[in-house]
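Q: Please design a sequence for this.
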């Protein structure tokens, strides 16, 4: 082993000449645009197993020798290039979860699949410095081994032409740093976090701080999933300026492997693929997928909950995100909002979707800020207190799903930060001297409760939608960005209540005591489920296990990118144009559908095709998309759906009242802004237009808020403009 280390230069030289001659020439000629040569570990192991083992156990000297040998070969070949050597594709026995890295891994080569949560700003670090002796003028070179301190010479070395005098004392010398001779390298600190799917139970995700240098700096952004090949090292903890026997673990970044292909973190074997394809051929495929969504939540065949589960199936698969020639991006993710009374299983649905979705993240509106949801600019804990960028939930859920419970409990300003993240699926940060754009390409499933505890009944089917929006206290700008909005009421229906109660009792009876699990007296059903593809519910119907469901979704999203057939295009277009034609005769601004509705329909149809593992979205997929879309719209507002209410927060009737009141005020004041108009006159005139006192009072309040009219005194009103 020691022989391999001492002979590293020669071995690297022979290996690169024999195995990577063409790659070496390509890198050298393209440098600095191509700053490094990547060497797969399996290639080195096949060439010399002992040398490969020495690399794992003593990575720093071996890698340093590799970079020096690479640069020497470049010089000998006539290239003025200084590329770095990077080793990738480490063997499986080098892979570690962050929480497992301990003392045995110090100064060894390890690999970890992680997500980047924070990056510092880029700073230069000196790795070679020259110091000039003030007495004799000799230049003393000093290598700088770390970023913590500047190492200065303690005497003027004769081998460098120095006077052999030491620093300090009467006859001593001093040294001056020669700034023009400094050799520097880019330096950046990165904070990484282990993947949520690798966390067991309720454990906190482990974090680590990584030092990236040279071409590895400015390579990653918060939210990126990478395989980080690193060398762990330690630094002593300090307490009151004194060193302690406790050490903190840090990492030096050796190489980065980007997870460019989505959902590669979910392993899918050839056997899994065969099973997935068999499932996709089932006649009852969509029913199977629907029933597998939160099977503990009961849903009758024709119930609203059944339709909700169907929409959640489509949300898991999602539509196809597309890039246009002009650089514009069309999102494929489907956003769903669940508004409902307490106890209708909203939180259970969100919890299940966060677990079953690849790259799923869960957050509660009461415990998350806008910065925690999108991204935050925080003080740099790595160094001198400058600002760094830290990813939030939506960034970390990139290419996955974010489940946000109690959306109504979030601060209004915090909710507004979701607008760009939902539609453009990116967020821009310009704060603390930082200017960055981070991707948020994730589906959002949110839940909201009414302010007063329960929704009122009088607004069901055809009533005024605006008061219902006011009950959940969500702004129209946010509401309009959801593709589907479900209104879930806890209504009493004798037959459904009996079946739901029976389902709850049966579910409770088949569960395993948590205390018995902790004592080891019972088998954890989750461990059993991991080994299965299918299971049965209380009625004997087939269900997919969560691991198989995840694999099915990941495989479908990775391999299938369906396009609409001409028949599907025609069906969706006809439905959209039919809805657009439903504009009220009195021209009150009612719009039954906007272009956003058509885009939502396309995404739903593509998701349906993807769930079948099809490359084409056919007419039956468009029919399913249309059925789900019509269902939630009817449940929300009945037949007379007004999408303008979603966009403005005011129903067509209220908008009409505002318009009529403005005309009435102009008529009664004869268009003069200094003329008082009595409320009784306004009420009488509005009554002739079939608007009652309550509606008129509401319109007076609205026009007053936007500055069209004002109340100078008592029951008198004036035009403001």
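A: Design:
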């Amino acid at each position: 082993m020691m022989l391999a280390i001492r002979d590293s230069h020669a071995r690297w030289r022979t290996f690169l000449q024999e195995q990577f001659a063409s790659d070496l020439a390509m890198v050298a000629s393209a440098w600095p645009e191509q700053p490094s040569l990547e060497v797969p570990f399996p290639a080195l192991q096949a060439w010399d197993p002992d040398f490969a083992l020495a690399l794992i156990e003593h990575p720093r000297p071996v890698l340093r020798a590799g970079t020096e040998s690479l640069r020497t070969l470049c010089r000998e070949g006539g290239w003025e290039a200084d590329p770095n050597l990077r080793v990738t594709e480490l063997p499986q026995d080098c892979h570690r979860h962050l929480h497992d890295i301990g003392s045995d891994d110090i100064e060894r080569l390890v690999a970890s699949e992680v997500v980047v949560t924070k990056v510092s700003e880029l700073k230069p670090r000196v790795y070679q410095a020259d110091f000039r002796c003030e007495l004799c003028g000799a230049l003393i070179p000093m290598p700088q081994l770390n970023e913590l301190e500047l190492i200065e010479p303690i005497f003027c070395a004769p081998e460098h032409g120095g006077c052999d005098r030491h620093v300090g004392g009467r006859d001593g010398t001093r040294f001056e740093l020669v700034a023009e001779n400094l050799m520097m390298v880019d330096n950046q600190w990165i904070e990484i976090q282990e993947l949520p799917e690798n966390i067991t139970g309720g454990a906190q995700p482990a974090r680590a701080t990584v030092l990236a240098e040279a071409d590895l700096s400015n390579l990653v952004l918060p939210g990126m999933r990478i395989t980080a090949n690193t060398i762990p090292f330690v630094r002593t903890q300090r307490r009151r300026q004194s060193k302690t026997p406790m050490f903190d673990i840090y990492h030096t970044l050796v190489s980065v492997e980007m997870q460019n292909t989505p959902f590669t973190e979910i392993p899918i074997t050839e056997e899994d693929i065969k099973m997935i394809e068999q499932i996709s051929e089932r006649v009852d495929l969509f029913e199977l997928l629907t029933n597998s969504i939160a099977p503990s939540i009961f849903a009758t065949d024709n119930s609203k909950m059944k339709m909700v589960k169907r929409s959640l199936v489509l949300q898991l698969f999602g539509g196809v995100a597309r890039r246009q020639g002009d650089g514009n991006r069309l999102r494929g993710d489907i956003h769903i909002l669940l508004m409902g009374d307490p106890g209708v299983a909203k939180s259970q649905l969100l919890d299940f979707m966060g677990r079953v979705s690849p790259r799923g993240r869960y957050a509660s509106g009461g415990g998350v800020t806008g910065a925690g949801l999108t991204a935050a600019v925080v003080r740099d804990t790595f160094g001198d207190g400058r600002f760094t960028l830290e990813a939030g939930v939506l960034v970390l859920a990139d290419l996955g799903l974010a489940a946000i419970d109690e959306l109504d409990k979030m601060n209004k300003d915090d909710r507004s930060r979701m607008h760009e993240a939902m539609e453009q699926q990116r967020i821009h940060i310009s704060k603390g001297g930082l200017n960055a754009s981070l991707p948020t390409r994730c589906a959002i499933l949110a839940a909201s409760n009414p302010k007063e505890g329960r929704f009122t009944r009088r607004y069901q089917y055809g009533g005024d939608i605006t008061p219902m929006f006011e009950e959940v206290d969500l702004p129209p700008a946010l509401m309009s960005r959801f593709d589907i909005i479900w209104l879930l009421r806890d209504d009493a229906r004798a037959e459904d209540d009996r079946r739901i109660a029976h389902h709850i009792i049966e579910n409770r009876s088949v569960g395993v005591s948590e205390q018995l699990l902790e004592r080891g007296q019972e088998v954890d059903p989750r461990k059993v489920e991991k080994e299965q593809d299918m299971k049965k519910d209380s009625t004997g119907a087939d269900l997919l296990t969560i691991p198989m469901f995840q694999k099915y979704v990941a495989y479908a999203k990775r391999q299938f990118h369906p396009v609409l057939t001409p028949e599907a295009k025609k069906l969706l277009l006809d439905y959209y144009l039919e809805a657009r034609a439903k504009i009220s005769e009195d021209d009150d601004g009612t719009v039954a559908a906007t272009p956003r509705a058509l885009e939502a329909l396309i995404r739903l149809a593509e998701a349906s095709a993807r769930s079948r593992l099809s490359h084409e979205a056919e007419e039956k997929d468009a029919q399913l998309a249309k059925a789900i879309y019509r269902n939630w719209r009817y449940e929300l507002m009945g037949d007379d759906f007004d999408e303008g209410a979603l966009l403005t927060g005011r129903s067509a009737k209220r908008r009409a009242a505002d318009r009529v009141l403005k005309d009435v005020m102009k008529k009664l004041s004869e268009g003069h802004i200094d003329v008082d108009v009595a409320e009784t006159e306004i009420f009488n005139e509005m009554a002739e237009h079939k608007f009652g006192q309550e509606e008129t009072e509401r319109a007076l309040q609205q026009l007053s808020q936007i500055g069209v009219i004002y109340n100078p005194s008592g029951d008198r009103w004036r035009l403001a403009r």
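Q: Thanks. Anything notable?
A: Residues 652-719 form a domain with the Arc Repressor Mutant, subunit A fold (CATH 1.10.10.10). Confidence is low (pLDDT under 50) at residues 458-463.
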